[in-house]
Amino acid sequence: MEGKAFTDLKGDASPLGGVLDFAEKHAWKVVPSIFVSALPSAILSDDAVEQFWNRFEYYWNSSSSEPVDAIYLVLHGAGVSVSFPDVEGELLRRIRNLEGATNLPIFGVYDLHANFSQVMARYADALIGYRENPHFDAKESGVRAAALLEKSLRSGIRPKQYLIQPPIIWPPTGTASASNPMKRLLQRARQLEVIHPEFWAVNINGGFAFADSADTGVSFSIVTDGKESIAKESLEELNQIAMECCEEGNVLEVPFEKVLLDLAQSDSSNNRKGPVILAEPSDNVGGGAPGDGTGLLRLLLEHKMDQSAVCLWDPDSVMQLSQHTAGSLVALELGGRGSNFDKGPVRIECELIRVSDGDFELEDKQSHLASVCGDRFDMGQCALVRHAGVTILLTTNRTPPMDLGQWRHVGVHPEELSFIGVKAAVAHRRAYDPIASANYLIETPGPCQSKLSEFPYRHIRRPVFPLDALEAVKMLSSSGKEIAKLVN
Ligand SMILES: [Zn+2]
Question: pTM here?
Fold first, then answer.
């Protein structure tokens, strides 16, 4: 988005919408540049990075008639392209080296799943991370970072960033802010901000395990105008806490049979109210998986899970179904095309319930999805089909399951179902927890499964938990060898 489309985002549910709102209230004169976003997926092409950069440079050069006071960036923080394992770091380096930008304050906001790099720490003054996962505070965090920039502009104080990278990676399932270890770390971060008024922000970064880079993993950063030694002391403390509870963050999926047993046992003691959420992290759309995995769908069909529903990304089937009328029985080959881990398409005959457009307004403007797309999401043309007791929502666009509006838009009332298959790890919980009677992480094959030792990492820093034995990682730590890098 550029030009008017960029400034029109003012006030919407995204971080950029919040920052543009803040800018207006504080009489900032904004020089808009370019905003691009994508759902997590495979490695970026270098061309995509260069296209972004060319447009950014164009706006920078065209603003040169009036001096710019500061630069504000809305980042994610875990970008990897073919040649740049740290896309955000590379962009920050280039921005810092622009003519006229060498001495400017560079502030910004980023996602809690950033693989925060040493280069990001070096070239920005202050980057502020989300504190919640699901990210219902994305917009608020953008505004918080803008307020800190305002503070810097008014006071003339330029803070510094310090970073520590513990030898830990956690799968997305282990990065929920309501559970340990993130909960404990985030609480300590808030306390440190109170104890040390010179800290502008203490960031707890869960990291993004499915990127393979030297900076992949958990990290902590402190933005401060105080003494380096105090910041380092606090970072060491956070590092220590993370090492103590790193196993708690290695949250793994369980076999479906175990879940069925558990449900059978709990059923006898109390009647469930609301659907059971069967999350399938291996096909986590928000984590970069295709969303067309058939693992959970196969389990629902095989175990005849009555009154169940799942959403699948399958543009081919939607197109095929658009030729039919409601009530038709259609032989379909569902999903299974997007990943080598999958068994391939499920061939079944389904009854077509309806075909509809998929552009819906978010029910929850603070949902994780709003941090990605603002107020609306477009699933593309959709088809709702049914086979036995299993309802399947087929979409043209990959759709992260983070807002119940997705179901109601196509005429399904999620709270009336018995089981809902959800292709996510944590981000769905804000939407689904209020209606759920139980929540399970189901083991299926897929590119975002939580057992990280299954993946052929090549660039990640080693030793690292859980790829290397915890004892080995801790032994290195206690023997004094530097495994946690600290930079500013
Ligand atoms: Zn995230």
Answer: 0.89
